[in-house]
Amino acid sequence: MSPRAAVVWTPEFLHYDLGDGHPLDPVRLDLTMRLATGLGVLEGVEPLVPTQAPDDEVQRVHVPSYLTAVKSAPEAPFGVGHGLGTEDNPVFFGMHDASALVCGGSLLGAKEIAEGRADRAVNIAGGLHHAMPDRASGFCVYNDCAVAISWLLDHGFDRIAYIDVDVHHGDGVQAAFYGDPRVLTVSLHQHPMTLWPGTGWPGEYGDGDGAGYAVNLPLPPGTSDSGWLRAFHAVVPSLVSEFRPQILVTQCGVDTHAEDPLANLGLSVDGHRTIYRALRELAEHAAGGKWLAVGGGGYGLFRVVPRSWTHLVATVLDRDVEPHRPLPAGWVAHVAGLTGQQLPTSMTDGRDSGYEPWGEGSDRVDTAVLETRRAVFPLHGLDPDDPRD
C-alpha cells in the first residue's frame, strides 16, 4: 500500500438510505467494504472516519434556504419542494445529517491531500454529482463533489480537473463551475438523447472565462469497454495534460456496466478496473500524483458494484487485485443470503478490455469523439483532427 493513500469510511454512511426498493441501496457500500476486507485489500489500513460537513461548508454550493428545506423535510406533512419528496429523492429521517456526512467524507479526503498527509484518497460513499444549488436531483441531496472542489479552490489549488465516468452526465458539478476556468470538468456518459438527465452535449463547453473548461463526451447506447476506453484516451489525456491540474478529482460511478438496470452501456468489471488504472496513471502523469476518488451511481448491487469498487479502492492503494482472484467464500455466503441472483466467482467478468486507439481504424464512437474534440480542443490550442493531440 502506498503510505500516502487514505480510505475514508464509516458504517454511518449506510444511513444515507432513500428507502426500501430505492435503486441507491446502501448495501452496495457495505458489500464493497466487506469484499475489500475479505480480499486483504484493507489489511493494515485504518480508515479515516469523517464527521458531518458543517452548514457553512455545504453552503459553498447550496443556498441556505435549501439546507433549511432538507432539515425540515422529514417533519413537513405537505412537502417542502426543492426536488424533495419525489420518487427519485424521497424524504427520510436524518436526511440532512446523512447527506452532510457524505460531504464530510469527501471534504476529509480533500483535506488529507491538501494538507500533505496523503497523495490519494477514496470515498466510495461520495459522488452525489446531480444535486443542484437549491434542489435535490437524481438520488443526490448535497453535491459532495462540488463541495470538495470548492474547498480545494480556497486552500491552495487553482487548477482542478474533475473527471466523471458515471453513466449519467455530471450535471451538478458542471453547473457549479460552468464559468470557472480553474476547474476543468470532463464527463463521459450515455448520450443525453437516450438517458436522464438529458444534458451533457458537446456544445455545453462552458461560459465566459470558463469557455472550453466544460467537456462532454456522450456515448451511444451499447458502447463496450473497448469503445469507452477508445473515447476516453482520444479526449481526456490531451486536455488534462494541457490543463496541468494540481489535483485530479474523479467520480467513479459504475452504472456503465452491461448489467446495470438503469442504463444501457456495455462495460464490464474488467473495463472498470482498466479505467481506474488509467485514472491513476493520469494523476501521476498530469497532476503530481494527487488524486481524490469518490463513488457515484451503480445499481448492480450484488454482482457488480462490490467488485468494481473493490478494484477502485485497491487501485488507489496500489494493491491491485488480480482479475481471476476468487471471491472469498465467506463473502459469497453472506451475499447469497441477501439475493437469489447467481453470484460471480471471481473479480473478473472474463472480458478483454483492450482497445484500438482513435485515429487507427473505425469505431462507432468516433463521431462522438470528433464532435467533442472539435467543440473544445481548439479552445486549448489543440488540433481536433490530429490523433497525436
UniProtKB/TrEMBL annotation:
CDD domains on file: HDAC_AcuC_like (cd09994)
* Pathway the protein contributes to: Ketone degradation; acetoin degradation
Under the heading Pfam families, the entry gives: Hist_deacetyl (PF00850)
Q: Which UniProt keywords apply?
A: Acetoin catabolism, Hydrolase
Region Disordered: start and end of each range? 342-362
InterPro entries, from UniProt? Answer: AcuC, HDAC_I/II, HDACs, His_deacetylse_dom, His_deacetylse_dom_sf, Ureohydrolase_dom_sf
| Positions of the Histone deacetylase domain | 22-315
Give the family this protein belongs to, as stated in its UniProt record.
Belongs to the histone deacetylase family.
**What is this protein's record name?**
Acetoin utilization protein AcuC
Query: What's the source species for this entry?
Result: Pseudonocardia xinjiangensis
